[in-house]
Amino acid sequence: MRRHAPRTKTRLKSRRSRGVVLSIVEVGEDLREKVDARRDLGAPLLAVEDLHTQFNTSRGIVRAVEGVSFTVNAGEVVAIVGESGSGKSVTALSIMRLLPRLTGKIPKGKITFDGRSLLDLSDEEMRKIRGREISMIFQEPMTSLNPLLTIGLQIKEPLQIHLGMSDSEAQARAVELLTLVGIPDPAGRLDQYPHQFSGGMRQRVMIAIGLACNPKLIIADEPTTALDVTIQAQILELMKNLSRKLNIALIVITHNLGVVARYADRVIVMYAARVAEQGSAEAVFHKPRHPYSMGLLRSVPRLDRPRGAKLETIEGLPPNLANVSTACRFAPRCPFRIAVCDQEPPLFSTDTGSLSRCHRHTDIAEGKITWESLGGAGLNFAANTEAPVLAVKNLTKHFSVSGGLRSARGTVRAVQDVSFDIYPGETLGLVGESGCGKTTVGRLILDLEKPTSGSITFEGLNLEGASSAQLKAMRRKMQVIFQDPYSSLNPRMTVGQIIGEPLHVYQIVDGRQKIEARVAELLENVGLRPEMAERYPHQLSGGQRQRVGIARALAMEPSFIVCDEAVSALDVSIQGQIINLLEDLQRKFKLAFLFIAHDLAVVRHISARVVVMYFGRIMEIADRDAIYQQPLHPYTKVLLDAAPVPDPTIEKQREPRLIKGELPSHMAPPTGCVFNTRCPMASQECRETVPPLEEKRPGHFAACINI
Questions:
Q1: pTM attached to this predicted model
Q2: Which of 402, 434, 623, 705 has the fewest Cβ atoms nearer than 10 Å?
Q3: Does residue 379 carry a pLDDT above 70?
């Protein structure tokens, strides 16, 4: 590939004055002119045929991918969706040939990229393709970026290796790339390290590295799962626009069906290592021809529809890939199973032009199969006349930051003048971008941090003046469910020991037999079998571990639970199960929840009222229907506009309203309204005056002087 380098350098130098985007587009076109004829003839850029990928483990051979076939054309966006363990990421790693050398192998199949068989290339030949012609953007950028090297060095490295650029030429291209992905002050940022970037900016750096050598194919594995809705919209719009301008093919692996609806041309639904359904985005979303696809779509809470009583879910778990049966792999979880489902179905051609691995696809097309509603009563969101279980008044938290290498001493104003109440049996949603203070508010309520000022009253007790005995009793009534259950469960303790420990410490139940009986009851309350008590956390799925975390919280017989991103890392179907579980437990025990999340659809579904935070301050508080149907604050409107809806017809007709710029520094906050630096309605008064949180409509509060 070095034979292209001199021509690339000349083009880049001569055309730099004509604009950043233009120079990169023209370089990309120059490098690809030799393959345009082949693509014009209809040959796909990537063709995966009958791919099988296996892993040798202590428990036998795990068949992670079996018989997967698909194609990707230049400039096309193909989404791969499915539950964890379905084979999505392993398919991507197989294409990149990044499988573990000792345990992973591809015993069968063919991967053809741009006319070359990737499985027949030597390691050295494959290294020349990786990064140069195929790049991959991983889910967590901090695991891919070297913390010891500057951002500039990491962007310049592939340019110098693959394109033979000099240091000065690579430096100039690195500045262009950072400008292209929307990072301010790109020249200055090149000398910074990954820890000095926000999560969204680190992901943009990963995209810049992926684009550095003008690849023909980008594989993005859950590129936006950990990002806020506004940053997610910015990054996905960027990738979609670059795909169009540079004719780059995109494979997006995700469980966010809204993202798929907005950006994908075609969708591949995977289940238990096989393709369950494959077709255009419109066909899969509007006319699914596989029960699993139908179940996934019904499991998603939606912003564009009235809230139902319950989320539809797919009960059960995917099969163990080390021991799969010869029947349809979805049959044990399928409500439409019949005798023929005892045989493994092939991929059938359907009436929509899609492919479906279901014996009953014609019955689905004819309307003979419909997914019945779960029914069930909705939560009572009537005005609560009882005293609040939690009252937060003028809560403020400042952190002192000590000076260190390349950093200055200062004060971080994490939470500023926050007030709200939560009533018995109510769920209060708390939303906002990363860094807005959501988690800090939760930690202050749990007494894990001490407030700088303000008060927190729980069941009539002011926590500031409480004695140690009172705080101990309070902690029993106030529990937390963490985002990552695996990191909060002791890996050396069984599930029974984890749940039983607080029963013993607080003497809630006496005697071993009574504790075991109570543990079994708690497991049944959260939908787990009693024998799960003998397992360790690593032997459970993500959804099961989250249920264990909920059972441990319930063991204390609390009246209030803080749910900190409790479902953000879960698959769509498992997420629906956990949300329904929390609602059932709330009805049964009259629990109050503070539900912290960045998924606006989930918050709308589960919450009675919603608090919107930005940069440590509350922007808006209202009933969940009012805040979603008639938002008042400009920031709330931007959040809602940025959230994708799982419907391609709707998404293709609207342009997302992208919020401009990054969050300002907490050590140098803007004067006046904290949102004025990014607000499209900001006036001079907004830059000088901090707007109070006022009741603009009955029960609807907003902090904006322009309303």
A1: 0.80
A2: 402
A3: no
